[in-house]
């Protein structure tokens, strides 16, 4: 048992020109202070205390002295030309050494800090120091320092040594035995003279003598408990759990693929006059192919006789092999409309009241497929250039935390932050492994479908077949890469989560939501979907707005006014493009000379027919309903942002993306069912699994464990213990479940239209 001595002094003098100086000399150090003791705050405010109490640095017993002997010299002096009364009291501390799993209560104030000793038990390698208080204020600081004299236990020097946190009602610091060669440390408690560092009120700027405060009562009752942390075996169990949980998805996928192979892929014999259509694998159909367009069919139906209603297809002998997706530089995007009549009749086709998939899948499949592959290659380039500086930055953050000991830099859940190596919260990083593993699994599933599709094309000339949704896998590959990168960047964010790097965790969430909407739209609009360049440019604008929102979105009304206007105008512009399927162009009626007065007449007619008349009697009722609901949702978001100005701007934008995606997906499924299309068992299972996973994931997401919108001390009030294996907290469970939810969401988009693989495209409606 180590003994410690505490010195209490008091002086009635308020003369700041002639303070009383106290110097305590010990075996290994000197401690000094003055009375009145002066603390400085904001705006040169001073807080003076006439009553001071300090704990002297304890001395270890030596062979020359008995354990209870400590030689201490106390020197008292003042330069005052008059006598000053003071009081000196030296006492022995009875409970200086803290014990494991035993709570200890005490009080502290700015002029009377406290610190205690803790020694690691033999079988404990890591402990968590839990400190709680019933009152949020006064603001305090908890510090862990090595056994070195002097101990830094005042407001102006507590940050000079060791690890420290600011605190209101709760603080938690994980300490490892390996960081202290002596296997012991001091736990220091300091009360700050002002509360602004913990989120309290900021003192006003007052000049003159009014800014001096004497003997302000700022006493705080604290309770400290030191408990053992988890053992190394728990780390191993947590890693096995994380990897095995998601390896089970691989096993399930292998089982499904094997069953699918047994049931369909073995059927290689196709009856005469029938075709083999492959989407999710191999599906047979006995529908004969008519040599000419059936009477009454829509534009885009197969017409080998060259009728004007459809696109004339060249003979199989004159076209490349069916399975060759050449990457020749000759085939550029400018070659999409290679036939002159396409440019002239595509506007006529898109004005039909009832559109079918054959009307919007008229372009060369190889060139369109290569167009969508650009999504894949571009997102890989973006990922590399985005991730490398992010990794470098978060490594710097973690290094600063480890070197300075300032645990207010990162917003962890300190009650469940398990360090490993240089990482302060390894559990928050490990829980992101699901995004990477399931993203890679999704890439493998897409690759299998792609290979089976190519194999089917080699068996039969797919260009003469007009069945099912056109198979373009570029967007699916991009979605898989985006899911993997979300795991990487989320892990980077959780290396040191704070206000400055939150966009790392959300950037690829924007891209995932955007890619899903593009894929859903591309399914029945393959010829008119956005190019990769325009899509990624739009994502870049969104991310730029997110960064501006983080910087200016707190209190600047002008930013929210501009952003809301951009949001509403973008919604209207996108709605116009969707409603008219890219045919509405302002330049069409602005291309006339300004001297031609017909331009005004044309503008009035366009506004009347396309706005007033269309809104009262819309030609495309389903599209109009979707766009009206979508605009109402987006305008509501814009009004909400303008009125309430949420501080978490990145999550606000993400909410806009997710709501639009869910709205479009619900519309798509409803329209699919209205069109008498079926939901096969696999997509139905994926839809149910997606809904269940998202519901469970969102429950844990809203269990707020920290918040960088507040001060670090206020954020720690939300900290909670681990809930899974004693290693993972609520947010880690959110990572696990959200990864599975995103994976099933992707599978929904991948398998949703498998029932159409045996349906002619001129029978598949567009919506």
TrEMBL record:
<dbReference type="Pfam" id="PF13965">
    <property type="entry name" value="SID-1_RNA_chan"/>
</dbReference>
<feature type="transmembrane region" description="Helical">
    <location>
        <begin position="624"/>
        <end position="643"/>
    </location>
</feature>
<dbReference type="GO" id="GO:0051033">
    <property type="term" value="F:RNA transmembrane transporter activity"/>
</dbReference>
<feature type="transmembrane region" description="Helical">
    <location>
        <begin position="375"/>
        <end position="395"/>
    </location>
</feature>
<comment type="similarity">
    <text>Belongs to the SID1 family.</text>
</comment>
<protein>
    <submittedName>
        <fullName>SIDT1 protein</fullName>
    </submittedName>
</protein>
<keyword id="KW-0812">Transmembrane</keyword>
<feature type="compositionally biased region" description="Acidic residues">
    <location>
        <begin position="328"/>
        <end position="338"/>
    </location>
</feature>
<feature type="transmembrane region" description="Helical">
    <location>
        <begin position="502"/>
        <end position="521"/>
    </location>
</feature>
<feature type="transmembrane region" description="Helical">
    <location>
        <begin position="733"/>
        <end position="752"/>
    </location>
</feature>
<dbReference type="InterPro" id="IPR025958">
    <property type="entry name" value="SID1_TM_fam"/>
</dbReference>
<feature type="transmembrane region" description="Helical">
    <location>
        <begin position="682"/>
        <end position="702"/>
    </location>
</feature>
<feature type="region of interest" description="Disordered">
    <location>
        <begin position="286"/>
        <end position="338"/>
    </location>
</feature>
<keyword id="KW-1133">Transmembrane helix</keyword>
<dbReference type="GO" id="GO:0005764">
    <property type="term" value="C:lysosome"/>
</dbReference>
<feature type="transmembrane region" description="Helical">
    <location>
        <begin position="429"/>
        <end position="447"/>
    </location>
</feature>
<feature type="compositionally biased region" description="Polar residues">
    <location>
        <begin position="286"/>
        <end position="296"/>
    </location>
</feature>
<feature type="transmembrane region" description="Helical">
    <location>
        <begin position="558"/>
        <end position="580"/>
    </location>
</feature>
<dbReference type="GO" id="GO:0005886">
    <property type="term" value="C:plasma membrane"/>
</dbReference>
<keyword id="KW-0732">Signal</keyword>
<feature type="transmembrane region" description="Helical">
    <location>
        <begin position="475"/>
        <end position="496"/>
    </location>
</feature>
<feature type="transmembrane region" description="Helical">
    <location>
        <begin position="234"/>
        <end position="259"/>
    </location>
</feature>
<feature type="transmembrane region" description="Helical">
    <location>
        <begin position="649"/>
        <end position="670"/>
    </location>
</feature>
<keyword id="KW-0325">Glycoprotein</keyword>
<feature type="transmembrane region" description="Helical">
    <location>
        <begin position="533"/>
        <end position="552"/>
    </location>
</feature>
<dbReference type="GO" id="GO:0003725">
    <property type="term" value="F:double-stranded RNA binding"/>
</dbReference>
<keyword id="KW-0472">Membrane</keyword>
């Amino acid at each position: 048992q180590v003994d410690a001595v505490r010195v209490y002094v008091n002086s009635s003098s308020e003369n700041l020109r002639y303070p009383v100086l106290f110097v305590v000399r010990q075996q290994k150090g000197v401690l000094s202070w003055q009375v009145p003791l002066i603390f400085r705050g904001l705006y040169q405010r001073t807080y003076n205390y006439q009553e001071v109490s300090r704990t002297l640095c304890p001395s270890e017993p030596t062979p020359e002295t008995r354990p209870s002997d400590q030689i201490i010299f106390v020197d008292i002096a003042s330069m005052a030309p008059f006598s000053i009364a003071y009081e000196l009291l030296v006492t022995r501390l009875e409970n200086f050494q803290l014990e494991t799993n035993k709570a200890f209560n005490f009080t502290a104030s700015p002029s009377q800090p406290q610190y205690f000793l803790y020694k690691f038990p033999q079988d404990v390698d890591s402990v968590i120091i839990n400190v709680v208080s019933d009152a949020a204020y006064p603001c305090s600081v908890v510090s862990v320092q090595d056994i070195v004299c002097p101990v830094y236990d005042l407001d102006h020097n507590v940050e000079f040594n060791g690890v420290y946190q600011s605190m209101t009602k709760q603080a938690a610091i994980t300490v490892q035995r390996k960081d202290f060669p002596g296997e012991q440390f001091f736990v220091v408690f300091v009360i700050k003279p002002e509360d602004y560092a913990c989120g309290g009120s900021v003192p006003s700027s007052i000049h003159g003598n009014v800014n001096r405060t004497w003997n302000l009562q700022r006493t705080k009752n604290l309770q400290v408990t030191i408990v053992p942390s988890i053992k190394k075996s728990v780390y191993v169990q947590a890693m096995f759990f994380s990897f095995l949980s998601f390896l089970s998805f691989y096993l399930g996928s292998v089982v499904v693929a094997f069953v699918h192979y047994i049931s369909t892929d073995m059927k290689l014999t196709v009856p005469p006059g029938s075709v083999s259509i492959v989407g999710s694998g191999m599906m047979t159909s006995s529908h004969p192919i008519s040599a000419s367009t059936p009477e009454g069919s829509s534009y885009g139906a197969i017409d080998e006789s060259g009728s004007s209603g459809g696109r004339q297809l060249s003979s199989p002998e004159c076209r490349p092999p069916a399975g060759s997706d050449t990457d020749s530089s000759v085939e550029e995007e400018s070659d999409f409309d290679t036939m002159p009549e396409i440019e002239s009749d595509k506007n006529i086709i898109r004005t039909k009241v009832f559109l079918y998939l054959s009307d919007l899948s008229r372009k060369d499949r190889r060139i369109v497929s290569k167009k969508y592959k650009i999504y894949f290659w571009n997102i890989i380039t973006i990922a590399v250039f985005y991730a490398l500086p992010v990794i470098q930055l978060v490594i710097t953050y973690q290094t600063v935390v480890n070197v300075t000991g300032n645990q207010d830099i990162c917003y962890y859940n300190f009650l469940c932050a398990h360090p490993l190596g240089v990482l302060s919260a390894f559990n928050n990083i490990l829980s992101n492994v699901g995004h990477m593993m399931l993203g890679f699994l999704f890439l493998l599933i897409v690759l299998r479908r792609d290979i089976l599709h190519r194999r089917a094309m080699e068996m039969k000339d797919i260009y003469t077949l007009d069945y099912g949704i056109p198979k373009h896998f570029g967007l699916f590959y991009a979605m898989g890469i985006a899911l993997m990168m979300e795991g990487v960047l989320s892990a980077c964010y959780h290396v040191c989560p704070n206000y400055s790097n939150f966009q790392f965790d959300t950037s690829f969430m924007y891209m995932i939501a955007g890619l899903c909407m593009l894929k859903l739209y591309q399914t029945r609009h393959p010829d008119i979907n956005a190019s990769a360049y325009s899509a990624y440019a739009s994502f870049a604008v969104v991310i730029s707005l997110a960064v501006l929102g983080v910087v200016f979105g707190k209190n600047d009304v002008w930013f929210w006014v501009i952003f809301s206007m951009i949001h509403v105008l973008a919604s209207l512009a996108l709605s116009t493009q969707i409603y008219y399927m890219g045919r509405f162009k302002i330049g069409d009626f602005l291309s006339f000379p300004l001297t031609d007065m017909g331009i005004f007449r044309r503008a009035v007619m366009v506004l009347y027919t396309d706005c007033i008349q269309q809104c009262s009697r819309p030609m495309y009722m389903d599209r109009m309903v979707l766009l009206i609901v979508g605009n109402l949702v987006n305008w509501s978001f814009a009004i909400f942002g303008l009125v309430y100005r949420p501080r978490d701007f990145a999550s606000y934008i993400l909410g806009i993306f997710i709501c639009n995606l869910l709205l479009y997906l619900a519309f798509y499924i409803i329209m699919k069912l209205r069109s008498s299309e079926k939901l096969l068992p696999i997509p139905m299972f994926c839809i149910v699994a997606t809904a269940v996973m998202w519901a469970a994931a969102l429950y844990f997401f809203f269990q707020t464990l920290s918040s960088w919108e507040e001060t670090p001390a206020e954020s720690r009030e939300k900290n909670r213990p681990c809930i899974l294996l004693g290693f993972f907290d609520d947010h880690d469970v959110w990572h696990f479940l959200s990864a599975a939810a995103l994976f099933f969401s992707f599978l929904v988009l991948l398998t949703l239209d498998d029932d159409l693989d045996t349906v002619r495209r001129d029978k598949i409606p567009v919506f």
